[in-house]
Amino acid sequence: MAMDVVDLRSDTVTRPTAAMREAMLSAAVGDDVYGEDPTVNALQQRLADDLGFDAGLFVPSGTQSNLLALLSHCERGDEYLVGMDAHTYKFEGGGAAVLGSIQPQPIVQDEDGSLPLARIEAAIKPVDPHFARTRLLALENTWHGRPLPLDYLRAAHDTARAHSLGLHLDGARLFNAAVACAVPARDIARHFDTVSICLSKGLGAPVGSVLLGSHALIDKARRWRKVCGGGWRQAGMLAAAGMHALDHHVARLADDHRRAAYLAGRLREIAGVQLLGQYTNMVFVDVPAERLRELDVHLREAGIRISIGYLSTLRLVTHLDVDDDGIERTAAAFHAFFARRG
Ligand SMILES: *Cc1c(COP(=O)(O)O)cnc(C)c1O
User: What pLDDT does residue 342 have?
Assistant: First the structure.
């Protein structure tokens, strides 16, 4: 029998559980472009109610959800303020500029992912034909696993509002932040006009994100979803997976966080591994650059996959498909490798 692979590259690699697949098979469906898919409607309304918004929009990906939010907040020639390393700015193909003629104004972030308020204020353009119109502040939470501090969110909200900016949250892993901060997700969401949530990361659904906002913003986003080719039909089978995830996979994110903390502790013991940090379900370590390839081969042979990032920094991500045994195997494989002479 093939060895079970412990895949720590990302929490996107989760596969639907048997119970989730059953929920998908038995989902009531209709045509969502007509607004008639009962399962899609229920998922959208449930998240909107839970997080304190009027409405939600179920979309295929987090990238599309963020794009639709930007298109709904901003017109052609408007500008949004965004972290220099934010997913929305850096890892989404420049979609807001490509498809919306929206200018990003990147802001250098602090170590914890926050955009310093003074830098936000300094970047807001005067109302003058020379400048793009600054319309929106976009934040990301969690940030490389880190929950943004709640008092920072409040302060960022107040600063943005003082300048009449809208606020969007890329909350791909909002529930990880909520679980880690031990607050309801709505206490984070309340500082924003729109929030995008991924169901396909740690929550374990195969596909899907939901954008939340006011009726007016979600109506705009629905139109843009159609324009982007994202109008879908009997999507209730996918929404059912999202519903199942919300019912069964939110509280258990604490298990992923506990496993990440345990793994960080085991890796810290190893001479040759430098623990850079552990936040929610992510562990970051540095290993000697010259041993990186060899380590990757060693781990693959032990049935462990990791993602090798910039230089010698590794990111290990825990999720639904990684259990205690998988974490023990990973720790043991690292110990064995570094016990060999380099
Ligand atoms: C994964 C992710 C997204 C969206 O990703 P998709 O792969 O398009 O679903 C957006 N923002 C952050 C921070 C993410 O981690």
Answer: 60
CA 288–ligand 1 middle distance (angstroms): 29
Averaged pLDDT for residues 24-41: 98
CA angle 315, 319, 323 (to 5 degrees): 110
Residue 63 beta carbon below 6 angstroms from any ligand 1 atom: yes
**CA 8 / ligand 1 centre spacing (Å):** 17
pTM reported for the whole predicted model: 0.97
Helix, strand or coil for residue 61? coil
* pLDDT at site 39: 98
Q: Which two tokens stand for residue 62?
A: 């987090």
Copy the structure tokens of residue 49.
């109610």
CA of 200 to the centre of ligand 1 (A): 9
Q: How far is the CA of 158 from the centre of ligand 1 (A)?
A: 26
Residue 310: which pLDDT band, with cuts at 50, 70 and 90?
low
Contact 32, 233 (CB under 8 A): yes
Q: Which amino acid is at 160?
A: A
What is the residue whose two structure tokens read 């023990």? 328
Question: Is the distance from CB of 135 to CB of 81 less than 8 angstroms?
Answer: no
pLDDT average, residue stretch 4-25: 97
Ligand 1 contact, 61 CB (< 6 A) = yes
Dihedral sign (CA 212, 204, 281, 247): positive
- With a 6 Å cutoff on the Cβ, whether 10 touches ligand 1 is no
172 lines ligand 1 (CB under 6 A): yes
User: Could you give the CA distance from residue 167 to residue 239 in angstroms, rounded to a whole number?
Assistant: 26
Q: Which tokens go with 299? A: 């781990």
Q: How confident is residue 308, by pLDDT bands cut at 50, 70 and 90?
A: confident
* Nearest residue (CA) to ligand 1, atom 5: 62
Sign of CA dihedral 297, 300, 304, 305: positive
